[in-house]
Amino acid sequence: MKVYVDNNATTMMDPAVVEAMQPFLTEQYGNPNSIHKAGSSIHPALASAVDQVYTAINAADADDIIFTSCATESNNWVLQSTWIDDILNGDKDHIVTTEVEHPSILSTCKFLEEQGVKVTYLPVNEQGVVEAHTVSSFITEKTALVSMMWASNETGMLFPVKEVSKICREKGVKFHSDAVQAVGKIPVDLQDVDIDFISFSAHKFHGPKGTGALYIKNSQKLSPLFHGGEQMAGRRSGTLNVAGIIGMGKALEIATTNIGGKMAEISAKRNKIEDALLELEDTFTIGDRNNRTPNTILISIRGVEGEGMLWDLNNGEIAASTGSACASEDLEANSVMLAIGADNELAHTGIRLSLSRFTTDEEVDYIIAHFTDAVKRLRAISSSYAIVQPTPGGEASCEVH
Amino acid sequence: MAKNDILGETLWDAYSDKVTTLMNNPTHQGEITEETAAANGNKLIVADFGAESCGDAVRLYWEIDPGDKIVNSKFKSFGCGTAIASSDVMTELCIGKTVQEAVKITNIDVEFALRDNPETPAVPPQKMHCSVMAYDVIKKAASLYLGVSEESFEDEIIVCECARVSLGTIQEVIKLNDLKTVEEITDYTKAGGFCKSCIKPGGHEDREWYLVDILENTRKEMDEEKMAAAADAGSAGEFATMTLVQKIKAVDAIIDESVRQFLIMDGGDMEIIDIKDSGEYIDIYIRYLGACNGCASSSTGTLYAIESTLKEKLAQNIRVLPI
Hints:
The structure holds two protein chains of two kinds. Chain A has helices spanning about 15-20, 35-40, 45-55, 70-90, 105-115, 130-140, 160-170, 240-255, 260-280, 305-315, 335-340, 345-350, 360-380, and strands at about 5, 65-70, 95-100, 120, 145, 175-180, 195-200, 210-215, 285, 295-300, 320, 320, 350-355. By secondary structure, chain A is α/β, with parallel strands linked by helices. Chain A has a seven-stranded mixed sheet with strand order 2-8-7-6-5-3-4, with helices on both faces. Chain A has a four-stranded antiparallel sheet with strand order 9-10-13-12. Chain A has a two-stranded parallel ribbon with strand order 1-11. The model of chain B has no long low-confidence stretch (mean pLDDT about 85). In chain B, α11 packs across α12.
């Protein structure tokens, strides 16, 4: 049985989404910016996709939702244009973000620091989230923007975006959230949360790869990142990714229809796995289950290194993910794991399982069985569970990393 | 960066089949107890290296007979696939060796034993650094058994931990083969070919010695040696091949040795103004100083004496021209 539980990385496209996109990859290939029928005939489908996206996140008509190539582009756009508009050409000099953001935020902030921008990276608590009062205490008169994720890709933990949005509004600071792990998974209501910008991406909710979006409240000023033609009212130039936008609309409509019911189904399966794995000795999960996206588990298994665990899961055709440094190309320890700071070992023993609405009950049982076997096998090899102790003088401690 | 780097490497695809096989079924995984070793009349040594919080840890067990021979070896490992597979091969390599022989096992030996074919590395470079811990744990076990410090096994400075290449070896190879780039050093010695930390600062871990510095300093030494050799060659009679500065020094040396004292006795002196090599002749321009200046002999007997001395000691085609 092939089981995919790495849905925070990317998801399977819903067959209904593929079907909705199909005509626009074949016969309806016109450029919507062309004047002829081949182009203009695309408009109704695009308009309908735009409606679907506005509805799904409860955006107002006065707001802009601009389609991009991915959430990385959306994040870069907000940060780089804030720098140009409010720092280079304004009187601000400071951006507040968190230690656990996606690389598209962190690397862009590092780049802006090289350009002279001051950036504050806020720490997380033992639950892996930044607390609202922490954000509040680091905002200054010179702060141009606060950028804080809506939900963590690693832990699924939800960040206090509503509280932070109020703080930012009071202090007159713009607020951006990378909502890539939230949109399509939990309700995102932009009439309820007063936020200036959010980024999201279709492939995280069973839509196509290569289609992201940036929500811009009240169509406020934000210089374009891509200059060129008049697409998207000049806010983001480049020929429209017609099929991608239509796919995003359809995928988001499906994901947010009866989202409460979908969340309950996914979290029931997630909880079943989590409960079973916590039955194993010396395991623990990160973050309060009720304050997480319904699909995510980050579990630490004592004595079992993450890449080794992933290896055994992979042998069982289970696709999961690890924050272990050993599994990354550069061997850098996972920033979220280190930021939580509860236990250094965690940085090497964390396994992330992220389910989707396509995860079946059979798969849940299969995961539990196979996961348990893998833990048994690897603990049998593990020095952490060895009985014979080192000859006196033969002990070791960690000196590097 | 180029075409082959655009998509990057898939980590597990870079593991050899042997790594895969041993990760799935390690042969020497397990423990040896004190009782078992004692029952066989042998000694048990157990040594750890690394720690869970480090990401990789290995525990090595040696059962050693009274003749210092490792008759059995096992391991336990908290680690990724390459840590487990390399620990397995390490124990395999230890069995049958004496403790003194086992200390000579390098991480490269382990990595080579994991290769499917001699040309293709068994693990990607970044994995060599963190997961192949053979040398360190063996050194520790051996020091416990022999009752000596781990440092006592280090009779030289190790620049590349992965391949265990010493500073002396690298310097020698650069000199012997006239190496000009770090890549060439890696080709010749394998130093810097694995985790790459020792190539230059900023790698996986900080090192005391870096190949870039060793190369620069060794090249500098080589240049100095070359100049010294040229100077030596000059005094051996190859005046024509010397650099201008060397020629001036050589001429000066001869003047100091055989001429100047006689000029000074007469209240005079001389200096070298220039040396011009026309191919047929080497013309040495001099100027007389003090009493020599204007002395009748300065353009006859003295000049002849200077010229014939230089001809005899340096080169037959020398002409000395006072100005």
